Amino acid sequence: MSSNNPVLKISNVSRTFGAIQALKEANFEINEGEIMGLVGENGAGKSTLVKIISGFDPGFKGSYKLKGKEVKFDTPSKAEESGIAIAQQELSLIPNMSVAENIFLTGAKVKKFATLNTLSKMARPYLDEVGLTDIDPATRINLLSVGEQHLVEVARLISREAKILILDEPTAALGELESRRILEMVQRLAANGKSIIYVSHRLDEIFKITKRITILRDGVSQGVQETKDIDVNKLVEIMLGRELANMFPSRADHISMDPKIEINELWPDGVLEPISFSAYKGEILGLSGQLGSGAGEVLASIAGALQSRSGSLTLNGETFLPKSPNQAIKKKIAYCSSDRKKDGLFLGRPIFENLTSPALDAISRFGFNFGDTEDTYAKNLAQEFLIDVKRVYDESGLLSGGNQQKVALGKWLSIKPDVLLVNEPTRGVDVGAKSEIYQRMRELAARGITIIFASTDIQEITYLPDRVITFYRGMMIDEHRLEQIKTPVILKEITDPFNETNL
Amino acid sequence: MTAITQDSQQPFSAKFLQFYKDRTLLAILLSLFAVMFVYGIFFTDNYLTITNFKAIIRDAALYGIMAIGLTFVTLSGNFFLLSLKETASICGVTFAMGMATGFGSPDLAGNFLVSLLAALAVAVVSGVIQGYFVGMGGNPIVVTLGGAGILYGIGAWWSDNLVINFKRPHDAEWLGTGSFLGLPSITLAFILMAVFAELVLRHTNFGRKVYLVGANKAAGKATGHENFSMAIIVFTICSVCCAFVAVAFVSQMDSAQSNYFSAEFGSSGDMTILVIATVMVGGNSIMGGYGSTLRTSLGAIFIAMVDNMMVLQGFNSGPRIVGVGLMIVFSIIVFGLFAKGSRAQE
């Protein structure tokens, strides 16, 4: 392995979108047969860099060298011809076609007429290479597990003679066993001389398989680290390492010892064992965990949006288990989901209708809604949540992401909730609106509302809540309070609580 | 990627589209009205007479009432009730059975109230059942097409495909052929229903829920407004409207048969197509969440005007049905164009 002669080398690359600088100064290189980890927080520029490498984004500045020669790819297919291929998180397989047909979907290497039998024979070596030795190539894709589908996707890329493979969070939606298969495949491919760019939030995996790690922070690459010279804490330090102090409101000085809502043995899908905890009056409790850790599922099941196998809630001395959001709302539990376009907003309807939607009884008399009760009500809510009062008659779909989130969250104040559950309070929200939303959440907590939120954003989890509960792959790991909330500890607990990196 | 979506001033074009989205559709409809009216005055004999306009509104009333019911279904995002004419048909047969035979007990024969309640009961049952399956997640097209077959079949089976006659004088003449204040009863009923439905949609919680659930079912569920109960209610409303039209129509004809309201009987073609055309021509969103019964009422009058014009011009039923079909297609195109203008700004 000649480390002075990288097969792909990118230097001083920058990329701006309008006023936003997604990449400032990124350097990246990879050798033949190497596994290079690419890490960084959300918004650090990972996906921009990946798009540049794979030819999706030709509009960058800087140098892109392949085997020492300067190249420029206008389209992803040009990059693929040069042997660079990407397996994205969303798979591009056709579910009701066979494995073999999916591998040769473009038909480049196939004769005009080919039976499934010939295709199967042709697909065999590629499937063996990714470790799918036990899969019949004639099987339909939708009969495979998600992990196996990822492997098929990679087999397809290899069939097109990809030399450099980019894997973008291949294990994000996978369980432990399936993840292992992916990791084994990556190692096998690297041993066969392929270069792998491995993008992941799961630091344990990064440590397990990579040789070197490129760390991005704020669009700047922080130098390449040899994996064996670095540990998790150091990596996290390099990944974050920036002031955030004033974006978050100061937290409460103590936690009230008066439990507001008790969650007993709640057990929704996606969680391994029944979960119990309580939240106190006027606190902000953060549930921390990666995608698939169960934190979001617990939140949804408290709100009745996700069925729980067992358990109950105790709120204001009543014990119950909401079977639907409607029942939860009646008990003054509000739930703001993580996908506002899907089930948070009525995009085609005006803002004021959105704001009053959970509390139609409050704006009407005996079911009739005359006069300006609703108008006043909606405008007050808008004012309280810093939404432009003049715009309340506009379609909510016309608002920016940040303002949409404020509407999605603000509408729940109309039911005067005792407990406010928020899944990903600031996903896809700009910095300004983010800090406004944090301020608002803190004020609501100060008013006595118990706020429980789930987030995959590590800064949010570190600086916003009074108490944090960590989740890892469907298990509750630990709890931290006030000053004991420390980013490295939490990060360790949500990525690798059982020291699997040392295995 | 950092998604710094700045809350920029929305472009002028977006505001313009937003403001004129409602009015454009309305303006197009109204200008078409005007064109038709002017054309009618100059090129059609017997057009500008009160009798003719009364006839137009009277025609509009029949499918207008059904269309007002269907508007609730469409606005709530449950697409269409495709068993419109079959619901009307079985309710008509039920009513006529009551008027002719009293359902087997001679004491009740010719009793208007009993017959009416029986017809409405049939409508409620069929509406609730179809709404239940749609609310459970069934595809509205499949569920109501299946419903159509079953309802028509039961009606034909029960009546042995015969015409059920009941002799004049009978207790339902006031509804079939009577009039108040110089207007036929069915026209008055149409006007009252249009006003009432518009009030319900604008000024009641139920009306608001119809719009919200229609705009986004998932968000509706999350805010406590489930489509399950909504589907049952709107399909029942629609079925009851069908029953009412059927009763009025049967009272006028003094008879009922299971294929009334079908293409081979009705002068303006198939009732289901006509009613769906009315909802579409009015400019209601086929996906739900946008529109009003007022638009539907205008659509009904517009279609009746076109149909009336074609009758006076001497077209027979074939070309007139083609005309209705073309109107559906055009309204979908026009609505698609303007709705896209606004949605593109999301």
| Beta-strand proportion of chain B | under 5%
Total of helices of chain A: 17
Oligomer: heterodimer
End-to-end separation of chain B: 20 Å
Strand order of the largest sheet of chain B: 1-4
Question: Which sheet architecture does the biggest sheet of chain B show?
Answer: 2 strands, antiparallel
- Name the average pLDDT of chain B: 84
Q: Find the biggest chain interface.
A: A-B, 49 and 36 residues
| Strand residue percentage of chain A | 15-25%
N-to-C order of helices and strands of chain B? HHHHHEHEEHHHHEHHH
Instruction: Report how far apart the termini of chain A are.
Output: 26 Å
Low-confidence stretches of chain A: none
Average pLDDT confidence of chain A is: 85
Helix-strand makeup class of chain A: alpha/beta
Number of helices of chain B: 13
Task: Describe this protein's structure.
The complex is a heterodimer of chains A (503) and B (346). Chain A has 503 residues and is an alpha/beta fold. Chain A is built from 17 helices and 20 strands. The longest helix of chain A has 16 residues. Chain B has 346 residues and is mostly helical. Chain B contains 13 helices and 4 strands. In chain B, the strands form 2 sheets. Chain B has a two-stranded antiparallel ribbon with strand order 1-4. A two-stranded antiparallel sheet of chain B has the order 2-3. The longest helix of chain B is centred in the first third of the chain and has 32 residues. The relative contact order of chain B is 0.18. The N terminus and C terminus of chain B are likely disordered. The interface between A and B is large, with 49 and 36 residues.
